[in-house]
Structures are given as C-alpha cells and as structure tokens.
Amino acid sequence: MIVSHENENVLYEIPVDLRKSIDYVSGNLFITDQRFIFQPRNMHFKRDAMEFTIQDINNIDSSYVLGIVPNGITVELKDGTTNTFVLESTLFVKCDDIIKTVWSLMENK
Known about the structure:
Layout: E1 10-20, E2 23-32, E3 35-40, E4 50-53, E5 57-63, E6 72-77, E7 82-87, H1 95-108
C-alpha cells in the first residue's frame, strides 16, 4: 500500500525484482501518473522503499535481463542513476504498454 499524493492515480502495481548490481530485491513497483514507487517485500533485510517522480526520468526502455525476451524495464534518471525492474514471466507482455504509458506521461509533464 502506498500513500498517494493529491490527485494521484495508480496506473500499475507490479511484482518485480529490482536489480542492484548482482543482487536482486523482490518487491512491488507502483507506477502512478506522478511517481515510481518501489516497496521491497523483505523488510527484514532493512531495504528502504525507493521513489522518484516521472519528471526525474531521462529515459525508459525495455531490458533483456535473461537475454531472450524483454523481461525488464530500465529507467535512467536525470542524475545518471539507472534502475532495472525485472518483471515476473507472466507480465513480460506488459513491458511495452508500461513503457508507452510512461513516455506519454513524460511528454505531458
């Protein structure tokens, strides 16, 4: 569950793994019309939630984490930080829709 800002709509709630170099952190990715919010599932590892705004995004594209099909979404922020979210296999087909939605939000901000 996330705390929404005023007039904010959740567009996607997706179970993902956030790739951190060679480590992966399982959690849920919430994409709203204003922000990306990653909430880790394993709080006992003391992993903090991460969030950034749509306006912070420089580029978003699909990723071939397994090398065969685009099963991830890589988001490059304006500060140079890169985050790769790996989708569960049943959600691979959503990659393109999610990316198109975020691009349209970026263009409208």
